[in-house]
Write a structure and sequence with these properties.
The complex is a heterodimer of chains A (290) and B (339). In chain A, a hairpin with a 2-residue loop joins β1 and β2. The longest helix of chain A has 32 residues. Chain A contains eleven helices and two strands. Chain A is mostly helical and 290 residues long. Chain A has one domain: ABC transporter involved in vitamin B12 uptake, BtuC (Orthogonal Bundle), CATH 1.10.3470. In chain A, strands 1-2 form a two-stranded antiparallel sheet. With 339 residues, chain B is mainly α. Chain B has one domain. Helix content of chain B is 73%, strand content 1%. Chain B has 15 helices and two strands. Chain B has a two-stranded antiparallel sheet with strand order 1-2. The two termini of chain B are 23 Å apart. In chain B, 46% of the residues are buried. The C terminus of chain B is likely disordered. Classes of the chains: A mainly alpha (290), B mainly alpha (339). The interface between A and B is large, with 41 and 44 residues.
């Protein structure tokens, strides 16, 4: 195969990887602060995608505009989930938290199945068949827009955590739970905000992914796994790590699909994950656990 | 030996166990084909739950990839049987060897490199997913199109080749579950069992006291993997078909650990109670849906999920510990360190 094919596939993998990265960023933010692994992450992703679909069919707006209301709705969902269910579990053992979120995932995926049915559904935008050409490189316009939006949202998130008082307060909770309480922060509310923010990331990523991909309720667990793989590769709790992990996994899967068979592509992502776990368990950009 | 095993077990606990065993033994005489299948499933989940419990409940290592051992065990014995006509009783050697090897590799990599907690759990998922996709492309066992065992009319039960009626499988599974129960009880009472509990409670403290943490965690993974692979063999010969997408899938791993978690992690009876509750609940719901004429896929699972949610929220240690207390089944000596 000519080299251009690989370049095209790699470019497309990297662009999709950015959207995956944003989804994983949500997981990473939640784990980094609340210290709970969100096993319902992929199910929340499909929920966001279905929300986008419904709004698109009702309003006919561009998914990248719908990103805002979807992210807002997912923020509310995450906030309430943390307040109602997860906060009482903060000091419970890991397997207990895991069970809670597995139960949430089970409910979510099946409610979606009841409401939206089992079939794959997608949307078509004005630019669905457009593409950009850069020399020999041809990339889908929709992927470029989605990846661009992912970068914007991720950038906004970085700025929020670095420059705003609220962002700093949340980082304080992540760094030192007791210390944050001593200085008078309302940790439970900040946890809820964090879970909301993580969910909003998923909401935004879901709206973007809707531009380039179809959705079924059954795909949820696969997205959960994908988010795990990305976040652990990049470094659980590290925000740039999640984006980097997304890029790497997007690239690995795309190239694995061309070099071998497309159905085996996730195997390469898992192989990468195993390598990272063995040689750098904290992830490429992660900090060593204390 | 037997006296040692019985030491400290309250008499009414023994009586209850004997009664339960009796009920399970005569159950097939009264059960319809459907109920027998449900009974088989309950025993199956009790068995794999017990096996998983060795790793998580005893040694404190959270594995979310136990479908790997089920699948490897199932495929190894089934492939030997189909390709070479090897009896599963001989093939189980290959099943155990494969599963133990896989467990040893995962354990070695994880424990040597200090992969623990959530990271360990996700490493186990990664390996089972890796196997799932790998077996999808493994043509010797037909890849993703599924591997089928020859099915004939069951005129007579052939226990040697595990070809026979559901009743035979029920009793086989009953024997395995009872065996696993006794084995786990014995393990808990052994030196290794105490080491495991020590590691579960505090790895650093155990190490400081001179417990070879690495070795005993490896033993836990390997024993758990070997037991789980046996369940895989029965699964293969009972259902007669194997699909990588089903047997290695993460939802299988989650399904098999729900029982012990709901029942009570680290307890001996927990996996039994959990399997009974969950399978009973799922099948009861299927029946209720049928009666009510609700035919919407997913309704059953939503209800299932909500029940799970309620148990996790309100019974953090599982269903069994409070029940044991209420019935006076707790061990007399409380200094044993068992939950």
């Amino acid at each position: 195969m000519p080299i251009e094919v690989y370049l095209n596939v790699a470019a497309s993998g990297l662009l999709t990887g950015l959207v995956y990265g944003l989804m994983a960023l949500g997981l990473s933010v939640i784990f980094g602060v609340v210290r709970v692994v969100n096993f319902a992450h992929g199910e929340m992703m499909t929920l966001a995608m279905f929300l986008t679909l419904v709004l698109f069919n009702a309003l006919g707006l561009d998914p990248l505009v719908l990103l805002v209301p979807v992210a807002a709705a997912m923020f509310a969902f995450g906030y309430l989930l943390q307040i109602g269910l997860i906060n009482p579990f903060i000091n419970r053992p890991e397997h207990s938290q895991f069970m809670l979120l597995v139960a949430v995932a089970l409910v979510l995926v099946n409610v979606q199945l009841i409401v939206f049915g089992p079939d794959a559904q997608g949307i078509r935008t004005r630019y669905s068949f457009d593409s950009f050409q850069l020399g020999t490189l041809i990339v889908d316009a929709s992927k470029v827009y989605a990846a661009g939006a992912a970068l914007v949202v991720a950038g906004a998130l970085f700025a929020f955590f670095r420059f705003t008082l609220l962002g700093k307060a949340i980082r304080a909770c992540a760094d030192n739970y007791d210390g944050a309480r001593v200085v008078g922060l309302n940790v439970k509310r900040l946890y809820a905000l964090t879970f909301g923010i993580g969910s909003a990331c998923v909401g935004a990523a879901g709206a973007m992914l809707m531009v380039v991909s179809d959705v079924t309720p059954a795909i949820g667990p696969a997205y959960t796994l994908l988010a795990f793989v990305i976040v652990i590769t990049g470094g659980l709790g590290s925000m740039p790590g999640a984006l980097l992990g997304g890029l790497l996994i997007g690239l690995t899967e795309a190239l694995g699909g061309v070099l071998f068979t497309p159905s085996a592509k996730s195997m390469f992502a898992f192989a990468l994950l195993v390598l990272v776990l063995l040689f750098r368990p904290q992830g490429i950009l992660g900090r060593k656990a204390a | 030996m037997i006296a040692r095993l019985l030491e400290g077990v309250p008499r009414r606990g023994l009586v209850a166990l004997a009664a339960l065993l009796l009920v399970l033994l005569v159950f097939p005489a009264f059960a319809s084909g459907y109920l027998l299948a449900v009974g088989f499933l309950i025993l199956y989940f009790a068995f794999v739950g017990q096996a998983w419990n060795i790793m998580m409940g005893f040694a404190g290592q959270l594995s979310l990839g136990h479908s790997l051992y089920v699948g490897l065990g199932a495929y190894a014995a089934a492939a030997l049987y189909v390709h070479f006509g090897v009896s599963p009783w001989i093939g189980l050697g290959a099943s155990i060897a494969t599963a133990v090897l896989a467990g040893a590799v995962i354990g070695f990599l994880a424990f040597r490199f200090g992969v623990a907690g959530v990271y360990f759990a996700i490493l186990t998922i990664a390996f089972s997913e890796f196997a799932r996709i790998g077996f999808d492309h493994f043509t010797w066992v037909q890849g993703s199109s599924g591997f089928f065992l020859p099915v004939t009319n069951y005129a007579a039960n052939d226990l040697w080749n595990l070809r026979g009626s559901p009743t035979m499988f029920y009793y086989l599974m009953l024997g395995m579950t009872a065996g696993a129960f006794v084995l786990c009880h014995a393990l808990l009472r052994s030196r290794m069992g105490y080491y495991w509990l020590a590691i579960r409670e505090s790895q650093e403290a155990a190490q400081a006291l001179g417990v070879n943490v690495f070795r005993y965690k490896m033993y836990a993974v390997m024993i758990s993997a070997a037991m789980t692979s046996l369940a895989g063999i029965v699964f293969a010969f009972y259902y007669n078909n194997l699909f990588p997408e089903q047997i290695f899938h993460i939802s299988r791993s989650i399904e098999l650990i729900l029982g012990p978690i709901i029942g009570g992690i680290g307890t001996l009876v927990g996996p039994l109670v959990g399997a009974l509750l969950l399978t009973g609940l799922a099948e009861g719901m299927r029946e209720a849906m049928l009666q009510l004429g609700i035919d919407v896929p997913g309704v059953k699972q939503v209800f299932y999920g909500v029940c799970l949610l309620l148990v996790v929220m309100f019974l953090p240690n599982g269903v069994w510990p409070p029940l044991a207390k209420a019935f006076g089944f707790e061990r007399r000596s409380t200094d044993r360190g068992e939950r």
